[in-house]
Write a structure and sequence with these properties.
With 291 residues, the protein is an alpha/beta fold. The chain folds into 2 domains: 160 residues, no CATH class; 110 residues, Diaminopimelate Epimerase, Chain A, domain 1. 39% of the residues lie in helices and 19% in strands. The chain has 12 helices and 11 strands. A hairpin with a 3-residue loop joins strand 10 and strand 11. Helix 1 runs parallel beside helix 3 and helix 3 runs antiparallel to helix 4.
């Protein structure tokens, strides 16, 4: 029996659900990419790693982030796909995952941020469910496991009827309204870069990760820094391209890999010690600017 080691975002949960269908999986481990890169979490020959950087000793590895290449030989698959779920779906091409084609297509759109402004304003279905999942809220692990088990049944009606899912979907709208308010309070434009600094100011639950782009359409990239939710000695920095304004050519994953993080070309994150945060933040902002 295998353990799936993944991160607690929607792509990670869908990846875990797909792996449950094609492999013998009986448990899960959730960890953030930068934590795995820094040696946290145990990895054994019984681990299937998905949507995370490679770690030697695992049974299999599936990922799609541009910053997570490896020269080591491994069982599994890596390529720059719209989602890790897509990598898994294409790897197991024997028909066992054919019924999940629609779910994988939606996961592609969510993870690659190819969604519309209307979908941001009024998400529905799997998109709305994805808004209830926040990878840094580690106390949500029981909810993530529940979603994995629901997702592998591939029945959206059943998922939406679940009491916990329904409650979280209903509370999403109030949470998102608060998120919009604090983004407006603690954000400034530096040329083309939107900079949001939540440190020592706000520690609530994040809402729609694309909301800032509807509030500040003039930016083409968003840099956000906040106190790390579980380690007071660290700060978390995330960077993402404006999905409606494609004038930034910064490779975010490559940029953040210089600071021990990583991600896609269009989005990524890293964590840094608090005493280094201002310097790293300034360097990242400068790298994102253009005329």
């Amino acid at each position: 029996m295998f353990r799936v080691t993944t991160r607690g975002d929607f792509d990670g949960l869908v990846s875990a659900a797909l792996l449950c269908v094609v492999e013998e999986v009986d448990r899960f481990q959730f960890i953030e990419p930068d934590a795995l890169q820094h040696g946290e979490g145990s990895i054994t020959h019984k681990d299937i790693i998905a949507n995370l950087p490679f770690r030697p000793g695992c049974a299999m590895w599936f990922d799609h982030h541009t910053s997570n290449t490896t020269v080591r030989k491994f069982k599994g698959s890596w390529w720059v796909a719209p989602s890790a779920a897509r990598v898994i779906y294409e790897y197991y091409s024997d028909g066992r995952l054919d019924e999940f084609e629609e779910l994988v297509e939606i996961t592609d759109r969510i993870d690659s941020a190819t969604i519309t402004a209307e979908e941001i304003r009024d998400p529905k279905g799997y998109l709305l469910i994805s808004m209830t999942v926040h990878s840094k809220q580690m106390n949500d692990e029981p909810y993530w496991v529940k979603l994995v088990n629901l997702l592998k049944e591939n029945d959206l009606t059943k998922i939406m009827a679940d009491d916990d899912v329904r409650r979280r979907c209903e509370s999403y709208y109030a949470m998102n309204a608060e998120y919009g308010e604090v983004i407006g309070l603690y954000s400034d434009l530096d040329k083309n870069v939107l900079v949001t600094d939540f440190r020592r100011r706000w520690h609530g639950e994040a809402g729609n990760r694309f909301l800032a782009f509807s509030l500040f359409p003039e930016c083409d990239i968003w840099v956000k820094v906040m106190d790390h939710p579980s380690d007071l000695s660290l700060a978390s920095i995330s960077v993402g391209h404006n999905i409606f304004n494609h004038t930034s050519d910064v490779n975010v994953g490559e940029l953040l890999s210089r600071y021990g993080g990583g991600g896609h070309k269009g989005a990524g994150g890293c964590r840094v010690h608090k005493e280094d945060a201002n310097r790293v933040l300034a360097e990242i902002i400068e790298a994102c600017k253009h005329d």
